[in-house]
């Protein structure tokens, strides 16, 4: 796709296109009502990345560094407005995930890459370490299982300590035993994403925000994306647009839209039946610690994992603020358009703190009443629901879904942030021709 044509797509806050007579991509969008018009609004592209979250940004950078022309499309006004900006900002070591799973492989590799990237690009980060704690005797075997799994996954430096030693490290902590993970850390996610955007742009990547991919079809062996301005979808009264405003024909397209990845894949005509997994949405709320002069903890403090998450844990941000969360609240009734437009309920009810206090006091008994303030919330795109075993990342190519040039990424929840550079490295190595 010529750069002149691409320039009509990017950097404007009102939609995907600016009026211009210099390229046939910029046409009278309001008059698109027939197949002939749709067929006239076509442009070829090299690599299209759908979704400007941290994984999409890392992938755009990786593809561009390998000499490809990259176009990033996102329905939001800027990058990283979904799960990427609503998480714990933790760099995970690679302990929790089944041996040889994609989560384990990408987390361990991604953590190494991420620390290196942050150091080389002056991204604020700290390798502060983590304590995973057992507060009851029934939890000690689970802690041993986590240690053995981490060692299998190649996580260095893990050691089990008695509660007395853990409490010397963290005087406010109470536990029977703790697993020390010195490789865990924190990162300023926004600074990371901003750096990835800058590097991608320096290599020629073009970003088009307020731009929604609403479907696709196959013509011969060419995958054709249906693209429209986000505002058109917003004004559609809950109905999908009958016709796209633009058809893009890329050589390679990656669906890494996170919360809407499965909804979008289901709108790709020609996908083999039964290969798109179901998505379950788990909302997690965070509360911040108020009235805390000196932070009570210097390390990340994690309980034993729970159904759907890693438990209400302690994180410390780059400014030293203490956060507790996330909890797990399964939500449903999300229609496709809402997922495309990120219309999730991110509010945090102050009353939800009543559920946090008893969970936190299991390991932090001195938590004072009234000291938790509502922070923020995030949504995890999970491939397993309540009481189901956790699922791995899913990366689908043509061999699975049958559409040439398409890569689908499903279930990219934690440790997606830690894994972003490793995921992009894997995709580029496996799928670039």
From TrEMBL:
It catalyses: (S)-2-hydroxyglutarate + A = 2-oxoglutarate + AH2. It comes from the Eukaryota. Its EC number is 1.1.99.2. One of its GO terms (molecular function) is (S)-2-hydroxyglutarate dehydrogenase activity. SUPFAM superfamilies: FAD/NAD(P)-binding domain (SSF51905). InterPro entries: FAD-dep_OxRdtase (IPR006076), FAD/NAD-bd_sf (IPR036188). Residues 46-430 form the FAD dependent oxidoreductase domain. Keywords: FAD, Flavoprotein, Oxidoreductase. It is an enzyme of class 1 (oxidoreductase). Its cofactor is FAD. Belongs to the L2HGDH family. PANTHER family: L-2-HYDROXYGLUTARATE DEHYDROGENASE, MITOCHONDRIAL. This is L-2-hydroxyglutarate dehydrogenase, mitochondrial. It comes from Morella rubra (Chinese bayberry).
């Amino acid at each position: 796709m010529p750069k002149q044509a691409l320039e009509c797509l990017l950097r404007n806050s009102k939609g995907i296109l600016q009026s211009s007579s210099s390229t046939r991509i910029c046409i009278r969008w309001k008059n698109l009502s027939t197949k002939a018009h749709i067929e006239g609004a076509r442009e070829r592209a090299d690599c299209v990345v759908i979704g400007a979250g941290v994984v999409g940004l890392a992938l755009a950078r990786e593809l561009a560094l390998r000499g490809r022309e990259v176009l990033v499309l996102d329905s939001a006004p800027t990058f990283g407005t979904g799960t990427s900006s609503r998480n714990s900002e933790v760099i995970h070591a690679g302990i929790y995930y089944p041996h040889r799973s994609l989560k384990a492989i990408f987390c361990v590799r991604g953590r190494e890459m991420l620390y290196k990237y942050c150091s080389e690009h002056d991204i604020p980060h700290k390798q502060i370490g983590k304590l995973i704690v057992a507060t009851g005797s029934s939890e000690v075997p689970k802690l041993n299982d986590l240690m053995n799994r981490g060692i299998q996954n190649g996580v260095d430096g893990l050691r089990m300590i008695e509660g007395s030693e853990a409490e010397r490290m963290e005087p406010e902590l109470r536990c029977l035993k703790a697993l020390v993970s010195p490789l865990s850390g924190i990162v300023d996610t926004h600074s990371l994403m901003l750096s990835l955007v800058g590097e991608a742009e320096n290599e020629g990547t073009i970003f088009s925000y307020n731009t929604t991919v609403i479907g696709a079809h196959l013509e011969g062996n060419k995958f054709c994306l249906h693209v429209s301005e986000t505002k058109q979808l917003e004004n559609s009264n809950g109905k999908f647009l009958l016709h796209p405003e633009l058809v893009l024909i890329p050589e390679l397209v990656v669906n890494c839209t996170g919360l809407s990845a499965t909804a979008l894949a289901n709108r790709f005509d020609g996908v083999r039946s039964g290969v798109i997994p179901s998505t379950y949405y788990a909302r997690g709320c965070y509360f911040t610690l108020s009235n805390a002069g000196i932070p009570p903890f210097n390390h990340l403090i994690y309980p034993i994992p729970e159904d759907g998450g890693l438990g209400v844990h302690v994180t410390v941000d780059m400014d030293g603020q203490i956060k507790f969360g996330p909890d797990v609240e399964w939500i449903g009734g999300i229609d496709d358009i809402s997922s495309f437009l990120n219309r999730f309920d991110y509010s945090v009810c102050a009353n939800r703190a009543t559920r946090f206090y008893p969970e936190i006091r299991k390991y932090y008994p001195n938590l004072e009443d009234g000291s938790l303030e509502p922070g923020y919330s995030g949504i995890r795109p999970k491939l397993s629901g309540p009481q189901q075993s956790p699922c791995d990342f899913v990366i689908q190519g043509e061999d699975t879904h049958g559409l040439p040039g398409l890569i689908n990424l499903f279930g990219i929840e934690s440790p997606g942030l830690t894994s972003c550079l490793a995921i992009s490295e894997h995709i580029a190595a496996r799928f670039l021709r």
